[in-house]
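Hello,

I think I submitted the iron/sulfur cluster job twice by accident. Can you confirm which output corresponds to this input? Input:
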Amino acid sequence: MSELLNVPTMADFMAQGKQPEVLFWVGCAGSFDDRAKKITKAFVKLLNKAQVEFAVLGTEESCTGDPAKRAGNEFLFQMQAVTNIEVMNAYEIKKIVTACPHCFNTIKNEYPELGGNYEVLHHTQFLKSLLDDGRLTIEGGQFKGKRITFHDPCYLGRANNVYEAPRDLIKKLEAELIEMKNCKKDGLCCGAGGAQMFKDAEKGDKEVNIERTEQALDIKPEIIAAGCPFCNTMMTDGVKAKEKENEVPVMDIAELIANAQDL
Amino acid sequence: MDYITNILFAVLLFIGIGYFSKNVKKLSRNIKLGHDVDVSDNKSQRWKNMAMIALGQSKMVHRPIAGILHVIVYIGFIIINIEVLEIIIDGLFGTHRIGLSVLPVSVYGFLIGAFEVLAVLVLVSVIVFWIRRNILKIKRFWNKEMTSWPKNDANYILYFEVVLMSLFLIMNASDIHFQSMNSGNVISQFIAPWFSGFSESALHSMERTAWWFHIIGILIFLNYLYFSKHLHILLAFPNTFYGSVKPQGQFDNLEAVTKEVKMMMDPNVDPFAAPADNAEMPAKFGASDVQDLNWVQLLNAYTCTECGRCTSQCPANQTGKKLSPRKIMMDTRDRLEEVGKNIDANKGTFVDDGKQLLDNYITREELWACTSCNACVEACPVSINPLSIILDMRRYLVMEQSAAPTELNNMMTNIENNGAPWPYNQMDRLNWKNE
Ligand code: SF4
Ligand code: SF4
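Support: Only one job matched these inputs. Its output is below.
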């Protein structure tokens, strides 16, 4: 299967004197986390299928600095930002797509002041545009008629007002999109943001991801859809804690679309 | 000799407004203790925000019951205050219902009639508010930071409204001349019969008493604002104007850090050169006390209505953690007041009192519980940003004190060494492709 993946790097393009259509910013989770790597691959399959000329930075990519910034380490954040911007500007990057809302938010909103100006899209927005341009077709396949709920990532939704692209894609699967009590602007965090992913929670009477998972399970979905590798982890853990992992899978939108077409 | 009342009125008005302006000055001085921040961008969006969020209360109606009742009280409050204009003119010049001599009876009657209806609507809303707070005990009004003063403050205002509205209606009901016009007494005509047994002079003194208490009440209310969460009826306007017009996910990039980073990364900079003039460097990174915050954050603190919408949406608070974004705002205001009083007591300079916002008010445990999810920012009906204060205080903890939780220090060391928050090698970043 993996030999089918075509993942050129910016260095490859450079060697051929070409520019890709878009840079796929994989992100740390997408590169290293076992669960998130599956999302990365699903997205790449879709890019390959739609014959998008994309490239990755590969070993030249480094953490955007998001968790450092939210933890309060502005120095480390800006060091990371400036390093990444130097690399991307050297390659004359214009357009970036990423499957991580944290990378998306940071590069889109916080890099420009530091000299990095790019058009940045979340992968659901990019997939939606491929669909609109007729470069990608989406079939319902195994998801036709399934009850799917979408958990809004804070850094995609509230932070950047992107609510519809992921929902439009779910609807395209001919699935039944159902909404949790708290959704869109009122969406409840999964508990991972602000560098919480990397530490234990403070003392309380519940974990945030359990609270959110309960809200999701309350409306009896067959699948919980996510658009962020960190939300994915948190929700997957939540579903496991509720012993529902065999009934209610947590899947990224890219995985849903790729799986529907048996990619 | 009738002038005595006019003079008395003028003196009262002078004292009431004078004391208020004194406190406004103090307020503005305290807000200016914060450092400067650029708010010159996107003026048109700012005006729009002020019109929509403060005047139009667009965020209030997100919770329909409280929102609509609040709109009624707000509109009622503003419109009925037109009546105060008449009271002030009458009081200063010894006239009675000056409106009647400048407006046709029908117009005057229509106005007062509208005020009377609003007064009743306000009364009803205020009673519902009181029930929600004290009988239904809606959760967000009973969190830990809602100690006795904030709770009382909220109730006092409700009582105030009841008294002011009642006085207004009684004043109209006992005004024989006004009742005999039978124009505009839509509500008070039903109250007038209660006093039917009273003599004319008794009615007159009743009307006068209600009139005096009404204006005195309003002056007291005006002066109470400075000490109350009700400052928001004034500050909501500047606060929504100066609130952020950037995407919520965009946190500010500390300029001082940018300079240092640029220098470190610039190969042309001589590392052994004398350090650039330190005058430009801020005294410290991040915030440990109110003076380290910017003035918009301090304005935020004074504007907070203590409604708790932020806290009720906060994932940390919902799951029992100590963090409450409302408390962040209340603590900031309390500390700012304390610093202000310190300055007053020490002839205009702040004398170290061994306290600060961090630890003495806001604990580290609260700060580290935040997921930076922006739910509080989204929920606030007056564009307050508690998250920005949390972030600035984290910056102080990390950059000045290296006091991050151990796990976060590990995460940051990983980023520094491997370019990822986990201990993986950057050279392995593309391995997924072949797995
Ligand atoms: S940003 Fe922090 S304080 Fe605000 S709601 Fe989210 S977790 Fe709570
Ligand atoms: S910060 Fe805003 S939402 Fe929170 S209590 Fe104050 S006014 Fe209400």
